[in-house]
Write a structure and sequence with these properties.
Length: 388
């Protein structure tokens, strides 16, 4: 019998990958599956970015790079942060990593251990809770409730802080709810956090460029009082349809940069060199593909929300960001997992049960609208026919 470390059994998973595997298995058996389960843009990476990656390979960028990323990439990120968030940052405080998830993992490992509280959004991206538990820390949910338009309540959040709290994770725009926090709520939170100067904040802003109705993304970086303890997570995966390239970045407070770099050296050495050049092209090249992609998501957003609201027992708020609709399905009388299974097996529509995003996701189901209008309409029809 192999003797595994105890913590390995505490790791959770991301069910969207399991749904994807099941949907693919059904497709291989000849079933026509529409995948609204997946959390990635259905667009190709823009051509000039792909070309930059190919060119880097042809130019011989085949070796290791500095662990935090080549300087020109970090300079491009610093410029992007200035343009998007109006804050000048030092490229030496940036660590580029293979995807947004890596920053999450590193941040939680830096603070998590038994006896410590780490707060995270629930429903929320499942990896937060998984890695918090893996670290041995207590995972304290921050409710993202429908009554708050899927944002958090700053007062409630602050009331959950204990002397054991070391790290608070926030995510706006949010996966899976599509919610986005308001400036007022953030201001209330930041005011309250001033009384807790020893708590670090991880702000997951991976969907920062995917917002709607002219609403600007509000970054926690704007708040000066948090700067010396804020970890800002963002990346290329969603904005540039680059999920498979594996590229993300974090801005670390000065006191944590060395720890993050050491974790990178211990874990992956550096991001694939050619991908880093593609990342520069993405940031410095034309941004029209991002605008077009968000416009397409916007059109699909109205169609899917309208369609979901016509399904008996469903009620769906209009998402403010990302590309997920998160209808309340409690009036159907079915559990989230039951609906996910029925929709996949009977309707041929892959979705993800709200409970895959935490216990507070019961009563909800996540539909990704990163799919064509035609497929979304077909899927809505199938869901209606199956549940009526
Ligand atoms: C909220 C959130 N953060 C981070 C990630 C991870 O992104 P990446 O693919 O860059 O690791 C995702 C991916 O779905 C996400 O939804």
């Amino acid at each position: 019998m192999l003797q595994l470390a105890q913590n390995i059994n505490k790791l959770g998973t991301e069910s969207a990958f399991e749904v994807l595997a099941r949907a693919e298995a059904l497709s291989e058996q000849g079933q026509d599956i529409i995948n609204l389960g997946i959390g990635q843009p259905d667009f190709r990476t823009p051509e000039h970015i792909v070309e930059a990656g190919i060119k880097a390979l042809r130019d011989g960028h085949h070796g290791y790079t500095p662990a935090p990323g080549i300087l020109s990439l970090r300079e491009a990120v610093a410029k992007e942060i200035f343009n998007s968030r109006g804050v000048e940052v030092n490229p030496n405080h940036l660590v580029c990593v293979p995807g947004g998830k890596v920053t999450m993992f590193f941040s939680i490992l830096m603070f998590g251990e038994p006896g410590v509280d780490i707060m995270y959004p629930n429903p929320g991206f499942p990896i937060y809770e998984s890695v918090i538990k893996y670290s041995g820390a207590n995972a304290i949910p921050i409710p993202q409730s429908e009554s708050k338009d899927f944002s958090f309540d700053a007062e409630e959040l602050l009331s959950l802080i204990t002397p054991r709290t070391r790290l608070i994770i926030l995510n706006t725009p949010n996966n899976p709810t599509g919610g986005a926090v308001t400036r007022l709520e953030l201001e209330k939170l930041v005011d309250g956090l001033e009384k807790h100067p020893n708590i670090a904040i991880l702000s997951d802003e991976i969907y920062s460029k995917i917002t709607y109705d002219g609403q600007e993304h509000i970054s926690l970086l704007e708040f000066e009082s948090l700067r010396n303890r804020l970890i800002l997570l963002d990346g290329w995966s969603k904005t540039y349809a680059m999920t498979g390239w594996r590229l993300g970045y974090a801005l670390w407070p000065e006191q944590l940069v060395d720890h993050a770099t050491r974790l990178a050296i211990n874990c992956h050495s550096c991001v694939n060199a050619a991908t880093q050049f593609a990342g520069i092209a993405a940031l410095e090249g034309p941004q029209d593909s991002v605008v077009n992609m968000v416009n397409s998501f916007n059109e699909r957003r109205s169609i899917i929300v309208d369609g979901l609201n016509r399904i008996p027992g469903f009620s769906c708020r209009m998402p403010k960001g990302a590309f997920y609709a998160f209808p309340n399905i409690s009036q159907t009388g079915l559990k989230a997992q039951e609906i996910q299974d029925i929709l996949l097996e009977k309707a041929g529509v892959a979705t993800v049960a709200g409970t895959s995003f935490g216990i507070l996701g019961e009563g909800y189901i996540r539909f990704s609208y990163a799919n064509s209008v035609e497929n979304i309409q077909k899927a809505l029809q199938r869901v209606r026919n199956t549940l009526e």
